[in-house]
Description:
The structure is a single chain. Helices cover about 30% and strands about 25% of the residues. Helix 7 (about 215-235) packs parallel to helix 8 (about 255-265). Strand 5 (about 80-85), helix 4 and strand 6 form a beta-alpha-beta unit. The mean pLDDT is about 95. It is of the alpha+beta class. About 50% of the residues are buried.
Amino acid sequence: MIGEAGAEVSITGLGTRVPDRVVTNDELSRYVETSDEWIVGRTGIRERRIAADDEALSDLALPACRTALAQAGLEGRDIDLLIVATVTPDMSFPSTGAILANQLGAVDAAAYDLSAGCTGFMYALAQGYGMLAGGLAKRALVVGGDVLSRILDWTDRSTLIVFGDGAGAVVLERTEERGFLGFELGADGAGGENLWLPGSGSRLFEDPDKHVKMNGREVFKLATRVLVQSAQDLLEKCDVSIADVDVYVPHQANVRIIEYATQKLGFPSEKVVVNVDRYGNTSSGSIPLALADAQADGRLRPGALVLMTGMGAGLTWGSALLRWTKGAA
């Protein structure tokens, strides 16, 4: 699914939060047979953040939301739509979206969770845009975050070294300038068993251990293909060239995947945001965390053209193209 965005909607606030606990590669070697050199060579990851035992997704998302609201000059009561993209909500129900809406004082806001794996934030951005563009909401909070450490097998090296915890939030508003230029979203359910969590829902499995299972080789093949294709399709639809893009924010899955996509698309390294070395793969939190880094180092200046592309469980993928604006109308 691909389409151009025709309404003046943009991001007017951005906030993030990661757990305090830093877990290095050397620390992981206590749990599985590995080393810092081995992990860095295959993933580019040097450390990740891991939530405390009493820390749930909403505990990370709440301060991220408050920071985003403050940056936009808003309060919780100004929000009438709250979407949380995650595969690790506080619980099955009530939704983490509803929990956050209550904590923020977003009275009567529509609030729900969305599941699209690591692509969740991109799907949620598109939904938030559509609701504002269609007049069904005035201001939205879009949250992307996960506490993947809760569903990892800490004896499985293939997943343990890759994932981390974190969350980010953005405020979407109607703006004087056009922000979002287009979206591209897709899914291939045939590849679902390459990255899945069997036994976590109503489908019965024999003796499921309810931990993330990943076929790294197949996920790598899909990721390198769809990150490139999704970006190319969206840019072509919007009549934008690679040279026109100022900031490229790929999903922070693995530095080898990022490097492949970057080289295939033809982006110079100075345009690419990479922080997987510090956070690992934070799933739905990946892209907002990378956006925050780009904002902190001054790359998200007004007028900058930003391309975001993600992929994840489903298997899903999605891209968004926007012009970074000065703020809300």
